[in-house]
Write a structure and sequence with these properties.
Layout: E1 37-41, H1 46-57, E2 66-68, H2 84-90, E3 102-105, E4 110-113, H3 116-127, H4 143-164, H5 171-192, H6 205-219, H7 227-234, H8 237-247, H9 250-253, H10 258-268, E5 298-299, E6 305-306
Parallel strand pairs: 1-2
Antiparallel strand pairs: 1-3, 3-4, 5-6
Helix pairs in contact: 1-3, 1-6, 4-5, 4-6, 5-8
Amino acid sequence: MPAAPLPTVPSLPSPPSFRGRIGCDASSGYYAVSRRYRLHISLSCPHCLRIAITHSLLGLEETLPVALLPAVPDSPDGGHCALRPLYEASSHRHPGPAAAPVLSDDWTGRIVSTDTPGILRDLARHFGGDGSGRPALYPHGAEEEIEAVGRLCEYRINEAGQHAGQAGADAATRQTHLSSLLRVLSSLEWRLAHQDFILGDEMTAADVQLWVTLVQLDTVHRLHLDAAAVHHIADHPHLWAYARRLAAHPAFGTHLDLDGIARRHHAHCQGLEAAGAAVQILDWSVHIVDGAAAQPARHCPDGFMEPQYALHLRPSGSV
């Protein structure tokens, strides 16, 4: 069954501060070496959650260490205090917040990249390898479709969901954004009624982004919508069955920090909760398991929080 075309949407926001890339050889400056680089992420951040899932899908636990940051940024400017030394070493008197995610180079003590799409592509292409059971997250020829799904998630789901519940907006404006959101969800529903993943029968990076977007829709944006709107959003059974199926995958559900997402949201949100807050679409908590994958993080001497063996993402029991 042919897939429905993806709607066109505006380009993504302006680029972040650091956009270094991992190359294939020494001439690129940054080249792929096991344990040379380090990821600094906060699982309450949707961009960081995408990186954590990709890291797990590619089996990079022993290749690329991960430092976990607090759920709520602890700097007055909205950044992480523990990341400030890296930012200062990479850009003297860096004017902006020391924000996550960060891919750093342990050899130089500097930041390679804060650009989520670039980090994800480099993990898949230069560290992922061809290990058995590892998905080809960026298959040849699918780049444009993956980018289209990214823009769809950013603007037609995240942004529309936020504006549909925006405090102070008139009812007509909220309804316009809600209608736009529901049209996109219906398109995705149609696709997932005929195929296992958003671009076909194999998992790609588009599924990672869409799943994280659905988590945000249900755990953050839903809180500011009325109950009728949430019921309309939930009325896409194939879409939410897909979200539930991916949540049961060890690389997805075990990274969910529901408490952290809630605390991060309430630390910055100025809006009021609506009736939709009482209408949960999925019970995401059933996919958070005990064991090594969910063990508490420990503090490291440099101020980061890091699990005992980087990220233990494969639970000993079933999800």
